[in-house]
Amino acid sequence: MRVDVLLEPDQTPAQLADLARLCEQQGIQRMWLQTYVNSRDPFLSLVPAMQATSRVGLGICVISPWEMHPVRIAAALMTLQEYGKGRLGLVIGGGGEWPVRLALDTSRRVRAVREAVELVRSAAAGKAFSYQGELYKVYGYKMPFKLDTPPLVYVGANRPQMIRGTVAAADGVMYSDMPHARIRETVQITRDAVAAKDRAIADYRISNIWAWHVKADRETALREARRELLLRGLLDPWYLESFLTPEECAVVIDNKKAFFKAYRERTGVIEGVPEAVVQKCLDHFTITGTVDDIDRRIPELLAFRDAGVNELCVRLHDDPAEAIRLIGERVLPKVA
């Protein structure tokens, strides 16, 4: 199982270059950069990191076809790939904050994501083509250059409908916060969808984002983990019901504003939710604790590998440099 890291978009381009060098030194396969509505342009931000490294892969997670037309996604992707000489990856998805923050109509979400993936991969092949989708069209399109190695295009998909409708069009799939109770069935749905299109599954990339909150101090780790719980599957009942009782699920859903407040105010204080329920969420959505807890949590990561995940994307928050060092020294030797 290869190991990637996913960074918050709060680093400057120069800081990203330093972190990419560190990832390269530690043997991390790929450093992904998260992108939000309120963040720097991810393609431009990664240029110094591409120039500063020679082996580590870099990637952008997630771009949606509503924020950027697929033709422009392809142009930006191929331009950055030119800097990196074959080391770039991109996740195209239809979820996240963009539809909500920009009040977008995403009624044909699955088709939009699939067509975007198909169009971008066609452009990355470097040949002239026309694309006639129901939502996106382009006539006589050809990039002015061709690269020896096209960038990898993943689809961001979690739920069965999106998986069945999109994964066969991509080089890989990236799940987000997929808990252990859901991972085997989700991997099987993915494999079936890929096989249905006569794609080889052996080299297909299956990744899962998993939150990492490991600190020298336990309270610091818990505060960060509680603060970020809102983002874990966006606390959707489909995830929660796999490890919480119906009554506990109702408590989380009824108090979702408390999770949002903890996230917005950066406190980690989740009012109105029993600590036992919060702890269940932490246990089933994250690796949280101190350095001394790492070894006993390794089997949880290996369980993803045994379920068919071949790329683990470790989600980092505060102090990513220290997390990268810990992952390189304490995790990679045991799961890679």
Annotation keywords:
alpha/beta, 336 residues, TIM Barrel, eight-stranded parallel barrel, two-stranded antiparallel sheet, 11 strands, 19% strand
- CATH-assigned fold name: TIM Barrel
Number of strands: 11
- What's the mean pLDDT score? 95
Strand content: 15-25%
Q: Report low-confidence residues grouped into runs of 5 or more.
A: none
Tell me about this structure.
This protein has 336 residues and is of the alpha/beta class. It has a single domain, classed as Luciferase-like domain (TIM Barrel, Alpha-Beta Barrel), CATH 3.20.20. Helix content is 47%, strand content 19%. It has 15 helices and eleven strands. It has helices spanning 13-26, 42-45, 47-52, 70-84, 98-101, 109-124, 160-166, 180-196, 218-227, 237-240, 246-254, 256-265, 275-285, 294-307, 320-335, and strands at residues 2-7, 30-34, 57-63, 88-93, 129-132, 137-141, 152-156, 172-176, 205-215, 286-290, 311-315. It has an eight-stranded parallel β-barrel, surrounded by six helices. A two-stranded antiparallel sheet has the order 5-6. Helix 4 (70-84) links the parallel strand 3 (57-63) and strand 4 (88-93). Helix 4 (70-84) crosses helix 6 (109-124) and helix 8 packs parallel to helix 14 (294-307). The longest helix is centred in the middle third of the chain and has 17 residues, at 180-196.
